[in-house]
Amino acid sequence: SPATMINHLDDPVLIGRVAWTPEDGHSSGSAMSLRTALRTSSNRAAVRLLLHVGIARTVRYAKTMGIGDVPSVPSLALGSGEVTLQAMTAAYAAFANHGLVPRPTLIRRVEDRDGHVLYASQETPVRAIRDTTAFLMSTMLADVVNAGTGAGARRLGFTLQAAGKTGTTNDFNDAWFIGYTPKLVTGVWVGFDEPRMILPNGFAAEVAVPVWAKFMKVATRNDRPEWLEMPSGVVTVKVCRLSGLLATEACKNGEVINGATGQIDRRSTVYTEYFARGTEPTAYCEAHQTQGVRVAGLLGAEEKPPAPYVDLKAIAPPGDAAEHRIAPAPTGTSGTVELIENPSTAMNTTKKRGFWSKVFRWTVKDRPNQPEPQRPPPSPPSKKPSGR
Ligand SMILES: [Zn+2]
């Protein structure tokens, strides 16, 4: 679930006899929830999650989602596979479209002068994931846009509810952002035909997100504010952010050491989380049960009160623009050794790109208008994020 804690992030990942510590930008903390990991784009958490889920299973899912064949290596979690912008954008459409992957099509319909339909696209979307999974992913990816590495879109004035994910590859050769509203999915890739550095520190948050935001502001100008309907298989539960378990009274006023200042703050770590029915926690948080126990580390250094406009009231605030970067191939001199397969091998295959930058868009299949579900309606963004 989004509240699942990913632990042991400071330990090197052991693959056989090989130890590997993925580079992790500004994301800190030895444990974090999956929700926080996505928001801060934690490489270490992504690799842990991949190994937990299983590489073979992940590769199968990539194929089902239309991404194609990706390499069976641990660095797959950081994007070491080659994918087209079109395939990746279509895959993200599944998150906006109840788990169904649409087949991209250029021509939807051809009519003659009298309005007779001469041709209509017959492509039917393929189910890749459950609608509950798609919704849970979307609530996490919404944090990315509201308060994570995609928050630049908010600073540029994009206000509709949206979700998305950044991606930056080794040596700043590629910058990605795929983001969506319930109606429109847009993928942005920035890079060169022959791979080379876009610019120093060309993180996707700085390079790709602004392109996306500027395009989406125009493309969605006439769209009404709305968000995805919560599937009946999803339930909301108040949990503690430190443990991911059921919140107690003690969680509402816990002592937390601010990693940046060393000062002790008192604040609530309770927030409303979404779960697929049957996966919600049944145990109560014990992190706050004992008076005087101070919890540090789990929160990382950038914890502040949550931004006021976000959908989930108590998600953590913006971190730095930590990005997906693949750790340089270990050299052996730094205590690590070569991976089973060198991720750079996969990175360098079939680099064929037609344009300097490509922007694809298509509309997610319209759904019948439905009233808002019972969950608290997302308040429209009204303030700029507090982070950078
Ligand atoms: Zn707690």
Q: Could you say what the CATH architecture of the domain at 5-109 and 120-231 and 322-363 is?
A: 3-Layer(aba) Sandwich
Uncertain parts: 291-388
The top-level CATH class of the domain at 5-109 and 120-231 and 322-363 is Alpha Beta
Radius of gyration: 21 Å
The fraction of residues assigned to DSSP E strands is 15-25%
Find the count of extended strands (DSSP E, 2+ residues): 16
Q: What structural class do helix, strand and pairing data support?
A: alpha+beta
Query: First CA to last CA: what distance?
Result: 28 Å
CATH-derived topology of the domain at 5-109 and 120-231 and 322-363:
Beta-lactamase
Widest sheet: strand order?
9-10-11-16
Q: Tell me which ligands are bound.
A: zinc ion
Secondary-structure element order, as H and E? EEEEHHHHEEEEHHEEEHEEEEHE
Mean pLDDT: 78
Largest sheet: 4 strands, antiparallel
Shape: globular
What is the fourth-level CATH superfamily of the domain at 5-109 and 120-231 and 322-363? DD-peptidase/beta-lactamase superfamily
Number of helices: 8
Q: Which bin fits the share of residues in helices?
A: 10-25%
Provide structural commentary.
By secondary structure, the protein is of the alpha+beta class. It has a domain at 5-109 and 120-231 and 322-363: DD-peptidase/beta-lactamase superfamily (Beta-lactamase), CATH 3.40.710.10. 21% of the residues lie in helices and 18% in strands. The strands form seven sheets. The protein has a four-stranded antiparallel β-sheet with strand order 9-10-11-16, with helices on both faces. The chain has a two-stranded antiparallel ribbon with strand order 1-4. Strands 2-3 form a two-stranded antiparallel sheet. A hairpin with a 5-residue loop joins strand 6 (109-111) and strand 7. The chain is globular. Bound molecules: zinc ion. Zinc ion (ZN) binds next to loops.
